[in-house]
């Protein structure tokens, strides 16, 4: 078979065009790969050999009102492992446990973190000690997937003295990781978060922004280069958190309460700023950073004084005689008593109501007293009668209006709601059963006992109203855009002045806290001795200077026996804040 020469030429041209087209296509593909998509393929190649290692962000520093440090950061270390699978990671951890303390529970914790976030290095120690790091560095060649890096470590320069306020940080737990709140904010296994106190309340503001660094690894996940593999993305520290606290006063309160059990709150009645808040005994928040030693945790949990229980925010205590000012103010508002009025029955050491005899703390009796004198002497018999005159319904309604069963709204987590009846008949019927209670409950309420349990903080807030002509101010730690002030006592200026004079008499030679006077400063306040299953609790709530109150202090000492012991603490706190010399206490009964 033969072809015409023209046909051969035509076929040759077609073949040439096909070959040229194929070459053009190949050239275009090479150009696209080598030029247009070079960056994408280069990045993919780089990512195949680089591992991203998180850089923890320093938390924001917490300062007091004078810019003194309450919480900051110091250099620390974190230890993590790169792993290509769970079995590989488990094997590495078993080997690691031969040279450094690592329990089965610790290993399972590392594996849980890895399962949740397989693309991140598995954190072994979020806060490794220098000793641990030194041991690991000695065996570095045996663990080529090990990453040891500097990490900011939370530090509280004054430790136990600020624990009731600041709280502490710790590694995020499984329950927290499972919650939508933390998931939405991008938390990952190994992250440190605030657990209680200011650290928890302001977690979102304090946490900072995590950075990244890149290490070069081989196909088996072994680190071959740690520095310079790719520029780091620097972590961004959290912003500074400024508070209204007075660190000097806080440290003084912690020192003076060192051997006691109880709570102290100091507030500015004009602004609501919490100047100091302490619970004794305290714990050291620095020991909670990273992993709390098991021995220290057992020590805290077995301590009958309950150092982990915040007695200023969560402790429920009958306010005792510190509450008599509420009884007096409500009765004055209702028009059933004046400061110069006597009660029908003088105090002979007790009061007979029905078939029950209600005793006064002064077994010898106080005789006939006016309301002002009854406040100074803390006469129970006077207030039994005053409570009956006021009546249970008005008493309870007045307490509800005073917010005695509401949270104070302080910007700290885990505050406990106080107890106060919400409705006379319904409340007592539910608590004791119909016909199982009598009007005798009024007598107990009138002297701060019975169905009335307040926190140290709630009593401090209550006395801000007595210090500021009836305006209750909500407490705060970190300044907010606005502070809630509400008038809850509706008395005349003359009535408030009279009540304050009676409270001044308490801290004088005429009252139950004579031993707690401050030279040159008039302190207005009230002692209280709260009945308890064991030894009585001691209370004092007061403010100073009486003419222009700048500080309210509430002190409750568990098993303190007598109110004047709390008064001595409170007036020393007031003296410290006002920078005046205190009179040395003497032994008197109050």
Quote the average pLDDT. 87
- Rg is 35 Å
Which class do the helix and strand fractions yield?
alpha+beta
What is the percent of helical residues?
Answer: 25-40%
Largest sheet: 5 strands, mixed
Distance between the termini: 134 Å
- Quaternary: single chain
Q: Overall 3D geometry?
A: elongated
Query: Strand share of the residues?
Result: 15-25%
Q: Which regions contain 5 or more consecutive residues with pLDDT less than 50?
A: 41-47, 584-590
- How many helices? The count is 21
Q: How many strands appear in the DSSP assignment?
A: 19
Task: Write up this protein.
The chain is α+β, with helices and mostly antiparallel strands. It has 21 helices and 19 strands. The strands form six sheets. Strands 2, 3, 4, 5 and 10 form a five-stranded mixed sheet that branches. Strands 12-11-19-18-17 form a five-stranded antiparallel sheet, with helices on both faces. Strand 13 and strand 14 form a beta hairpin. The chain is elongated, with a radius of gyration of 35 Å. It starts with a helix and ends in a 12-residue tail after the last helix.
Quick gist of this model?
This protein is an alpha+beta fold and 590 residues long.
Name the features.
about 600 residues; alpha+beta; 19 strands; about 35% helix
